[in-house]
Design a protein that fits this description.
With about 120 residues, the chain is an all-alpha fold. The chain has 5 helices and no strands. The radius of gyration is 26 Å and the shape is elongated.
Amino acid sequence: MDEHVNKNDERKRAIFDAMSARNQKSILKRGYDKWDPIQEPKDPIDIRKEKSKRTTQMLVREFLQSRSSEEYSSAYGRGVLEISLGIVNDEDRIRGMYEFSCWYRALLIREGYEE
């Protein structure tokens, strides 16, 4: 254990010595003992999922695979990505667009323009 601590102290000193005088001064101001340049890596951010437990990437891939590549352009794909991000992040603007789209489709069906 002491050997591990000594190696960390050596690494900490080496990192500190390699820093510019300005950065060293900043570290000393906050306290060299409190400074930890050898922190454990942080866990990856929580991967956001929507109600069906799909990520944005999963939604986009699944949807676009249900279409033939001739059916959509890059602008279409960007729109799919934007709305799926908004759904996963529960954005009001996207929810409004989604609800309007559902309402509009029902209107077209009700009035006989679509089956």
